[in-house]
From TrEMBL:
It comes from the Bacteria. GO terms for biological process: recombinational repair. One of its GO terms (cellular component) is cytosol. ATP binds at residues 71-78. The keyword DNA repair applies. This is DNA repair protein RadA. DNA-dependent ATPase involved in processing of recombination intermediates, plays a role in repairing DNA breaks. Stimulates the branch migration of RecA-mediated strand transfer reactions, allowing the 3' invading strand to extend heteroduplex DNA faster. Binds ssDNA in the presence of ADP but not other nucleotides, has ATPase activity that is stimulated by ssDNA and various branched DNA structures, but inhibited by SSB. Does not have RecA's homology-searching function. One of its GO terms (molecular function) is ATP-dependent DNA damage sensor activity. Belongs to the RecA family. RadA subfamily. Pfam families: AAA_25, ChlI. Residues 42-193 form the RecA family profile domain. It comes from Rhodococcus rhodnii LMG 5362. Residues 329-440 are annotated as: Lon-protease-like.
Amino acid sequence: MQERTAPTAVASRPGTSLAKAGAAAVLPTTPATPLSAVDGRATRAVPTGIGELDRVLGGGVVPGSVVLLAGEPGVGKSTLLLEVVHQWARRGPADRSLYVTGEESAGQVRLRADRTGAVHDRVYLAAESDLATILGHVEQVAPTLLVVDSVQTMLAADVDGVTGGVTQVKAVTSALTSLAKASGIPVLLIGHVTKDGAVAGPRSLEHLVDVVLHFEGDKHSTLRMVRGIKNRFGAADEVGCFELREDGIEAISDPSGLFLHERTTPVPGTAVTVTMDGKRPLLGEVQALVAKTQNPSPRRAVSGLDSARVAMILAVVERRGRVSLGNNDVYTATVGGMRMTEPSSDLAVAMAVVSAVRDRPLRPRLVVIGEVGLAGEVRRVPGVGRRLAEAARLGFDSALVPVGSGSPPPGMRVTEVADLGAAVAAMELLPVRAVPTVVR
């Protein structure tokens, strides 16, 4: 009987030939370095001077990084980055910024800079769309920050394809990324979005860059939000808030006041909740209006909330909370153009509807937090401690929360409820006060 010989493993010792493995070894020009010996100080974030943007970026822009800012037309992308290059140039004599625009003329950008107060001697402007010419501007100006508006309008002459096409966008982004890595210049790119809100161009575009930000905002509101989608240097779920004005864009470090209606007298049908947008707690107000109707199919109108979820909550309120809504039109909305998609606002919607049906307001300075299930149970939501701390900071002294939400912050009275029936029973409804009529 022939004896079998065990196969010999290919040893990975220095000097071993890799020809049998189908690969040819090449002597590296730079030897591998122990991770402990790598100097991380060269990749520390540098603040841009705009606090809300730095918050989303993870402290600022990292030298040699590429940031893609995408958003719908007219949302304020160019205005924001024009303010970024202005603040960057104000840092010191050694900091020069280059703003390259392929969508507007130099005169148009100057008009916006005059309107927003972003004119500075160390802000250089180039109205170019040819990639090779842009690289020539970079060598001539030697900036420490480069902004390209937008990547879909740039053209690489030695690459086939139309401007804005998949091939061109990928080639331009690859060239600008190589420039950033070789020179250490941070590059900010403006990108277009599709009808669905996704970044226009090849999917590989988001893989080539280091940071992807979405600039969002309702055209009927001045509120703008920069949302992190991808970030190799920090958290990818941060949100920065801005207000777009005629004279420019301004960062809002405390945006909760925009989503709360200031009033001296409590009003039926309103409830305040705390949502988490990324890691940021935001206070928002939910409003409900319940009106009698003779229509056999009562109307359900929703603004700023998930219509399917509101329909579910109304069914639970009627079935589990024993509140009749069959002969009523129900209107629900948020204040200030805020979008609430988190389930933690379910209980606030339910309490606002109950308050509207009974025509009695909730007690002032009360926040309502919790997810409502189909069985009527009130479920716990993450980050209740941070939510209550933010509410307490803004002057709220009581809360309606799910059971097991943890200890409240000092000075806040918390009522824990297990289901919707208990929440309705625990509501502190105030009597309706007559509001004086002002005759002019």
